[in-house]
Design a protein that fits this description.
single chain; mainly beta; Jelly Rolls; 8-stranded antiparallel beta sheet; 6-stranded antiparallel beta sheet; binds 2-acetamido-2-deoxy-beta-D-glucopyranose; GH16_AS; apoplast; xyloglucan:xyloglucosyl transferase activity; transferase; glycoprotein
Length: about 270
């Protein structure tokens, strides 16, 4: 994820052609005015105060391809806040790919918590410190593929056999408070005198097939259709290894207390 390395010129071009507009592509789903679409659809902000958080959801469902969003997380003392950005097909057998960004005291590191559900089954948690300041500038967060192996490579996460791939998913994001658990198990509470807390979104680009009202449409083929099964190139894979090695703080695949009978099958994948 994060600035998932070098996008090709072709992707840049297609992405521009399909450039996202929040008015067109998303609905604000909750928060009673705390979520706002600004700047003619180019910017979206979520905010959180003591009364409520807020959230939005894509109008379309997506399969395959690549979904980029630039996000600037809650700056300053964000302890207890959680910014979630995820794909989900909803329903009891849902597929879901989650990012949750757990805020922290000023100057202390955010944690990125990830999970993957396949056919309604999750339990694939991993946690990372971020290797950049996610609050200072916008950073690009990408879902790649939504196709089998590319997810395994690209998203730092490993999913193995039951990888989300069959069910088109909506894009969701929300900002809420979870100071009962988020910051060191609930040790650090949200400082409401700092409210409202705000996370910002811009430059949404989906180079992906969309599904709406049971009809599917995909971006037109260009001279190359590499985007369709877009996954990471070698430098991207190396970068993921570097992140895992240096910034990973929890991996369900090494939590032997949790899996005394042996790790889930996907854990043996590279
Ligand atoms: C917050 O900072 C502390 C101290 O650096 C760290 O132990 C913790 O993992 C950080 N993140 C969260 C979400 O608590
Ligand atoms: C798009 O291109 C791929 C290979 O580049 C090809 O397999 C596929 O059939 C093409 N799809 C359309 C709709 O032209």
């Amino acid at each position: 994820m994060k600035i998932l390395i070098s996008f090709s010129v072709l992707l840049g071009f297609l992405a521009a052609a399909l450039g996202g507009n929040f008015n067109q592509d998303f609905d604000i789903t909750w928060g009673d005015g705390r979520a706002k679409i600004l700047d003619n659809g180019k910017l979206l902000t979520l905010s959180l105060d003591k009364t409520s958080g807020s959230g939005f959801r894509s109008k379309n469902q997506y399969m395959f391809g690549k979904i980029d969003m630039q996000i600037k997380l809650v700056p300053g003392n964000s302890a207890g806040t959680v910014t979630a950005y995820y794909l989900s097909s909803l329903g009891s057998n849902h597929d879901e790919i989650d990012f949750e960004f757990l805020g922290n005291l000023s100057g202390e590191p955010y944690i990125m918590h990830t999970n993957v559900y396949t056919q309604g089954k999750g339990g694939r948690e991993q946690q990372f410190y971020l290797w950049f300041d996610p609050t200072k500038d916008f950073h690009t967060y990408s879902f790649y593929g939504i196709l089998k192996a590319s997810f395994q490579e690209s998203r730092i996460q490993r999913c193995g056999s039951g990888v989300p791939k069959d069910q088109p998913m909506w894009i969701f994001s929300s900002l809420w408070s979870a100071d009962d658990w988020a910051t060191r198990g609930g040790l650090v509470k949200t400082d409401w005198s700092q409210a409202p807390f705000t996370a910002s979104y811009t430059n949404f680009n989906a180079l992906a097939c969309t599904v709406s009202h049971a009809s599917k449409s995909c971006p037109k083929n260009s001279s190359s259709s590499a985007w369709f099964s877009e996954s990471l190139d070698n430098s991207g894979v190396e970068r993921i290894k570097w992140v895992r090695k240096n910034y990973m703080i929890y991996d369900y695949c090494t939590d032997s207390k949790r899996f005394p009978q042996g790790f889930p099958p996907e854990c043996s994948l590279a």
